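Rather than argue in generalities, we have chosen a single entry, letters for residues, whole numbers for local backbone shapes, without further comment.
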Amino acid sequence: MKLKGWPILALTLLSGSHAGAGAASSAEPWVHLRDPEIFQAEVLPGLLGELSLDPDVRIAVANAGLRILADVRISRDLSVSTFTRQPNGLAALVAREGFIAGLDPRYLVRLANRESHFDPFAESPTSTAAGLFQFTDNTWLCSMREFGPGLGVVGSDQISQNRRGVCETLAPGERSRLLSLRSDPLVSSRIAAAFSLRNYRVLVSALGRAPTVSELYTLHFFGEIDGLRFLRAMAESPDAMAYPFSPAGAKANSRLFFGKHGQPKKVFEVFESLNLP
């Protein structure tokens, strides 16, 4: 089944504008559609209350962190400890940063849950990915270079990028410090929100429409170049073997690309797994 012509699940932006979503097709059972909703601060607790992560992780709407989210006077000055000392506080913090950035916070919360189960110190055993959103070393440094100066991250304006797309710090000793910020819930949430918004716009330009949640997650998972290549394969040759379209992704995520007995999975089979519960 080809990707082209699939129903659209648009992310709602703070402006209140949104794209329509089509009806789910029985031929595409892995597409979980949800009607987009105009985003308003006063209805945020209700929206988050509907958000089911996995059976052991649910957001408690009654906690203090979400009451803060419901306040129209949302402020970036609220202490991180306001959230982290509350039950499900990290989820509330992630949601707040998505909301402030103009991204549907349901996407960002689901992303953090899938990537790390809200563990800011999570590390991948098969790659350099770390933190709430499992940014690899290079993706994080390049994202810091792109978004860090605007967010006021000290030293982020001293990151260079070479022709191969490798980002490095200019000042000695800064690399480790900047990479360690992946474990800072506030910084990582803000970078993830900015990164997701940029990927959203890249996909709108490439697809000529709003992306689905799975398409947006594909760019987070693979990166822009491999992600767009993979989505093109999904549109043109979904029955092809998946690993040639992202050798690095297959090496770091062998279970996603290969079956129990080592048989390579097809593009559409891998794409089925790229959803956010």
